[in-house]
Design goal:
The chain is mostly helical and 128 residues long. The mean pLDDT is 76. The chain starts with 24 loop residues before the first helix and ends in a 13-residue tail after the last helix. The protein contains three helices and no strands. The chain has helices at residues 25-63, 77-95, 99-115. Among the domains are: 23-63; 78-115. It is 59% helix and 0% strand. Residues 1-23 are annotated as: Disordered. Residues 10-23 have a biased composition (Basic residues). Keywords: Membrane, Transmembrane, Transmembrane helix.
C-alpha cells in the first residue's frame, strides 16, 4: 500500500497570484469606496468652512450702516453741496464721462420726473 491519503481527503491549493497581476476586483472596489469616502469627508469639511466664511461675511455686511444719518440742521448748505459735488465727480470718473454731462443728465432726469414727462435722451450740456 502506498503512504498517500485517499484523493478525497487531499485539499487542492488555490493557485497563487502571478507577480504583477492586477488586484482582484473586490479589493479594487473596496479601495475605490474608501477613496470616495475620504473625498466626501474632505469636501464636506471644506463646504462647512466656506459656509462659515460666507455667513460671517454676510453678518459683517449686514452690520454696516448703508443709510447716512439724517443731515442735522447744523450742517451748512456749502458742506452738503461739497459732499454732493465730490460724489458726482467720483461717479463721473468711474463712468468715464465729464462731470458737466453727468450733472446735466441727472438734472434732466429729475426735472422730467417732477414734470411727469419722459426725460430728454440728449440733454444740452455746458462745456467745462
Amino acid at each position: 500500500m502506498s503512504s498517500r491519503p485517499p484523493p478525497s481527503l487531499t485539499r487542492r491549493k488555490s493557485p497563487a497570484p502571478k507577480p504583477h497581476s492586477p488586484p482582484r476586483l473586490r479589493r479594487l472596489i473596496y479601495i475605490l469606496i474608501g477613496l470616495t469616502a475620504l473625498l466626501c469627508a474632505y469636501y464636506s469639511y471644506r463646504f462647512g468652512k466656506s459656509k462659515q466664511e460666507v455667513v460671517a461675511g454676510l453678518r459683517k455686511v449686514a452690520s454696516l450702516r448703508w443709510v447716512r444719518e439724517p443731515v442735522s440742521r447744523e450742517d451748512s448748505t456749502e458742506e452738503r453741496d461739497a459732499v454732493i459735488e465730490m460724489h458726482m465727480k467720483g461717479l463721473a470718473y468711474a463712468l468715464g464721462i465729464p462731470v458737466g454731462r453727468l450733472a446735466a443728465a441727472i438734472a434732466n432726469a429729475i426735472s422730467a420726473d417732477l414734470n411727469g414727462s419722459p426725460p430728454d435722451r440728449h440733454p444740452q450740456t455746458k462745456q467745462e
